Amino acid sequence: MTAQVTRKQMRTVFAETVIESLASDPRVVMLTADISSWFFWDVKKEYPDRVLNFGIREQAMIDIAGGFALAGMRPVVHTYAPFLIERPFEQIKIGLNHQDVGAVLVSVGASYDDPSWGRTHQGPGDVALLDTLPGWTVHVPGHEDEVGPLLRKAIAGDGRVYMRLSERANGEPVPVTDGFTVLRKGTAGVVIAVGPMLDQVLAATANIDATVLYTSTIRPFDHAGLRAAVADARANVVLVEPYLKGTSSHEVNEALTDVPHRVLSFGVWRDREARAYGTAEDHDKLFGVDPESLAASITRFFN
Amino acid sequence: MQTTEETLQDLIARMTGDNKHLAAATSTLDAIWVLYDRVLNVSPETIDDPDRDRFYLSKGHGPMAYYAVLAAKGFIDPDALDVWRTFDSPLGMHPDHVIAPGVEISSGSLGHGLPLGVGTALALRAQGRDARVFVLIGDGEFDEGSNHETMAIAGRLGLDRLTVIVIDNKTASLGWPDGIAKRFEMEGWLASTVDGRDQDQLYQALTRETDGRPRAVVAEVLPISEGSAA
């Protein structure tokens, strides 16, 4: 575990990558609403018109990003997940989607990175909310080494991209691809691990005859990758996502329209708030995604 | 074509079915006409030029005056006005810039145009361009919190190529004591209040030199009752 000491947070890699892109791509602008703005204080001296902190004004920030994009620039927009996606949701719908322009939205905080902050700083509905709008690419990196390649590609394009950073990360990175990476092959079913859920899924399935798929890009959903996996294993599909439970179950059903299948979903509760503080590991247990609970549930489901 | 007040009323009548002054359709008419006729450096030929001036109609409700001016200036085929709101028409009750010729933003939901305009003004500044951005909002729309976030941002950042025109027909439900211009002044804007039906006053206010501040023009327009003369 000595490697842990020198590991960077995903948020640090994000800031370093954006700072590089400011130098190499004149289209890039970095917009913040106080959160993480300190990462960009130095580079703002070099690019005062392209690094902007608006104070705590998230609604304006998203529409301003749309205005930048209308003039041909590439806005990168950042704050905590609930303030980036949930609070200014109509600004995303109207200021980006309806104007038919793009932006790269990058959040931190995830669903319950540090539950001691309470419900206000948790954003488990973000990916499900973006699912109500067309044309979003959604990245959920599971390791800090996955952040740079995903972000550089997002910035170089002109589409609508959401990158969901977490303070939680897997022990090892997985090379970045557009869809599912097969990490293990089995016959009893297919387990899909999204982003930072991978370590728990690998531990939970160590003694289960399952195919394990991993992805750091959940939208678009890799229909072909899932169909290929299900062709070689029974069509028992387990989704382990770090946000609202069942967020991708409609995609599984869409991918397997003509294949008799069963789906079991894991994630944050939909039907009630978890009114508890504590640690992320406490909440893993609450939602049944700690390795022991996952192993028991998946075994029951496969049998 | 030689465009007159009468021509514009005839163009509006192709959408409304009569040539009376519908307040919702025409409260913005003088301001938009002055902009396209005397202020903006944009034409159908330069609509994609990055150096063109931008006009963002944030008050997308009741866009008849806007469409009429765009038709008078050659952006829109006047025949399109006859079939507006139909399935195949590019012109709806709220403008969609992806399908409507000459329209710079899609609007209707209140409180988006000003921050979109600030984003574009900031982009033009970052690109070293001199183009200006004009945004038209309503006094009811001014209630939206996103406008107040944006008013503060534009003032602090000294966006002197940005102008907001507020059509004030006193419809904001809880009102704005002491007037809207004062709010803008407090946030570092150069603000003035004019008669929104006096085209010369509008022109003077919209082209007044600024000193590094964004500009707000509050255009007061009394709602005109059905059948009254303009």
Automatic annotation (TrEMBL), chain A:
- The superkingdom of the source organism is Bacteria
Give the InterPro entries listed for this entry: PDH/Transketolase, THDP-binding, Transketo_C/PFOR_II, Transketolase-like_Pyr-bd, Transketolase_C
Q: Which UniProt keywords apply?
A: Transferase
**Enzyme Commission number:** 2.2.1.1
Q: Name one GO molecular function term.
A: transketolase activity
Q: What class of enzyme is it?
A: transferase
Task: Describe the location of the Transketolase-like pyrimidine-binding domain by residue ranges.
Answer: 8-174
Show the Pfam families listed in the entry. Answer: Transket_pyr, Transketolase_C
Q: What is this protein called?
A: Transketolase
UniProtKB/TrEMBL annotation, chain B:
Keywords on record: Transferase
Q: Quick check: keyword Ubl conjugation in the entry?
A: no
Q: What class of enzyme is it?
A: transferase
Q: Which GO terms describe its molecular function?
A: magnesium ion binding; transketolase activity
A Pfam family reported for this protein in Swiss-Prot or TrEMBL:
Transketolase_N
SUPFAM superfamilies to which the protein is assigned, alphabetical? Thiamin diphosphate-binding fold (THDP-binding)
Alphabetized InterPro entries for the sequence:
THDP-binding (IPR029061), Transketolase_N (IPR005474)
Q: What is its EC number?
A: 2.2.1.1
Transketolase N-terminal domain location is 19-211
User: Would you tell me the protein name for this molecule?
Assistant: Transketolase
Annotated organism of origin: Kutzneria kofuensis
